[in-house]
Design a protein that fits this description.
Length: 477
Amino acid sequence: MASKSKSRWADDEADAALEAQLKKAKEEKKRIKAEKLRKLEAETHAREAAAAVAVAAGTHEGDNSANEPPAKRRRISPARETVQTTAAGVDGSGGALQLLRFDGGTFGRCRSVENYDKLNDIEEGAYGWVSRAKEIATGKVVALKRLKIDPKDRGGLPVTGLREIQMLKDCDHRNVVKMREVVVGDDTSKIENIFLVLEFVEHDLKSILEDMPEPFLASEVKTLLQQLASGVAYLHDNWILHRDLKTSNLLLNNRGQLKIADFGMARYVGDPPPAKLTQLVVTLWYRAPELLLGAARYTAAIDVWSVGCIFGELLTREPLLQGRHEVDELARIFALCGIPTDDTWPAFRRLPNARGLRLPGKTAAASGATIRTRFPLLTAAGVALLSGLLALDPDRRPTAREMLAHEYFRQDPKPKQEAMFPTFPSKAGQERRRRRETPNAPARGQAAVDLGAVDFSGIFSGREKEERGGGFSLRMV
């Protein structure tokens, strides 16, 4: 009887040797990292001990009087005995004025990125690279964002990075991603080795929409939209414009909680907003028409327009306005929302890029928006909300706070509870995300486009022959 043949998938000696070599290399890497961490801790302890000795030596007058002057103590407020008041009754007794003393704290050194073990790359954005990592001491999984900094730029840390660190440090809301700390690389002479340690969230909304076989249910869309509006309202209440809201910058964890991320283009504003704001902001497909037409001043309404584009994308799983360039983007906006007129947008013609536009005449096809036709399954309240968010005139768009009180969220089906939200396999936790051909956020300093003379008179040709009505279909909610 013939002997049983050996499987071609069985491990041979070469496989065993390779596995042993890889294991040895991995152990050596861990040993080197642990040795670096040990040396760093030893240096820290040595500095602390030296500082303690110096402080103790300073308490004995005879110890350092012969060698060096005593250490100077930082004065927080004037000495109490030197502050007197001559007017009786100022402090209730006519005596010395007592000043409160507050400890202002001190600046400390950032921790090293070697405290984290990199697991895998996640995504590359316009203003940084994001990786998944694990804190060695606690085992907690985090997201490490390395800021994009040009080492040849003599200006140092760019203002976009400073703003992102400041805003993430100031924000505290359940629908805004949290920053734990800022860490640096071992070579502190290189300014590009700056990392933001963020909470790890399993998914981004764009990846989920690309892989879903069916769109979100109506109740799920309401849950996501409600959380998005809550986070945007918090930002606007605290005078923050995000300026790059899109599905790839919205994160979703496995408990149905949405979080706004990527504040590389965000900035603080006041009321009224500053006169000189960067004109070229927001990724093209989510850019408001006033920005495309060269508005020099804009408000929080540009974020609300982006929310409207995200609303439409949640319903169809496809970006709502996929323009190839600025002119094509404007044409798609006018085709969906109608041609601006003196009634719908009084200040339209005063914008720089609107003066050279040639628009079609006032016909029935060009007079109104086609949102109702584009979304036949959306309720009347949903169409009203989407139409308001995508109003051409920024003054007619609702605020994020007003959006939360809209009738759309009170109608059946009600927003689904977050605990009942479906879960999805996490690409961020296993492999590099698949990149699609989508536009990136504008780069800092990039000039806005001057559209010049553009002819839009033919964008509604043939619309009179289109079939009206969208039919219907039954679906469980």
